[in-house]
């Protein structure tokens, strides 16, 4: 998970792309320390002290972890739960669409 | 003078009991914080020890050789926090603090999944806390307790709560879990109808976290389908800096619900 996402972020660092998380560790200090140790450079909303029962994942009806949404540059949901290579393909497709529109 | 000192005495008499009450509440709060902090620290230490084993050459070699026995023996040496001991301590504190004790049971129900512990919790809830609004906290995360009690024990407890409570938040949670419990055990059509009825009853009076949870499936259906504009998220990052999902409009975004745990 994390190594793949790190390489995706590295590969696309000059592109109009962002990886965002909703981190659902109950313990914020633990999350902060692990993120540093594991080289997680991307930004996450913190889901609060209730962890997986926190407000953001509850509202978004998240039942499994990880859950993934991919949005295009207009903020439209285009893919869900793509992992590994599939995630890369989805992002590349949306970046290509964006380039084609000349944005 | 005499009059004044009598007045002072009177004031003292009025102040003392309320001070004793608030002191008791403060002590309960301090004991609670201590319990939670110690549990978290031990859990963390155990997690770190497990990680150290995973990264050790012996463990890696065993895994490489597909020697699962050695690998699990190495892992077995990691000291795990004693859920039973923590649970018993929580119950003892609950007994000690009476009306302020509910929070210990709630935390124990959510974190210390030991058969005897959950039985002890259920007993005390039945005997002492059926009317407590604090039951709502216990019912936010009761699955570990239900599993320990078994389906029958859980159903019995929930029925008692539904029958006794005067608090909508508590009642809605209990009705919700009753419907979940039915759904877990291969329900027939009649039972499914009963579960739907309970859920509808819960929905009617739910507040706060449960209301949000019950809204989840509809929100997903109406707002989170492919082709829909993603609803905004307003929150804070790990440093407490506020930001929004919509701040990233104009970029392709992967949104990942994740955690280290």
Radius of gyration of chain B in whole Å, from Cα?
25 Å
Measured by residues with Cβ under 8 Å of the partner chain's Cβ, the largest interface is: A-B, 61 and 41 residues
Q: How far is the first residue's CA from the last residue's CA of chain B?
A: 66 Å
Query: What proportion of the residues of chain A form beta strands (DSSP E)?
Result: 15-25%
Percentage of residues in helical conformation of chain B = over 70%
Oligomeric state, counting identical vs distinct chains: heterodimer
| The first-level CATH class name of chain A | Alpha Beta
* Spatial gap, N to C terminus of chain A: 30 Å
Gyration radius of chain A, rounded: 15 Å
Low-pLDDT sequence parts of chain B: 6-17
Describe the strand arrangement of the main beta sheet of chain A, using strand numbers.
1-2
The total count of helices of chain A amounts to 4
Order of helices and strands of chain B: HHHHHHHHHHHEEE
Give a short synopsis of this structure.
With about 100 residues, chain A is of the alpha+beta class. Chain A contains four helices and four strands; from the N terminus they run H-E-H-E-H-E-E-H. The longest helix of chain B is centred in the first third of the chain and has 54 residues, at about 1-55.
List keywords for this structure.
heterodimer, A: Glutaredoxin, two-stranded parallel ribbon, 4 helices, 40% helix, B: 261 residues, two-stranded antiparallel sheet, 5% strand
Notes on the protein architecture:
The complex is a heterodimer of chains A (103) and B (261). By secondary structure, chain A is α+β, with helices and mostly antiparallel strands. Chain A has one domain (2-98): Glutaredoxin, CATH 3.40.30. Chain A contains four helices and four strands, in the order αβαβαββα. Chain B has 261 residues and is mainly alpha-helical. In chain B, strands 1-2 form a two-stranded antiparallel ribbon. The radius of gyration of chain B is 25 Å and the shape is globular. Mean pLDDT of chain B is 90; it is low at 6-17. In chain B, helix 5 (102-111) packs antiparallel against helix 6 (115-129). Chains A and B meet through strand 1, helix 2, strand 2, helix 3 and strand 3 of A and helix 11 and strand 3 of B. Strand 3 of chain A pairs antiparallel with strand 3 of chain B, so a sheet runs across the interface.
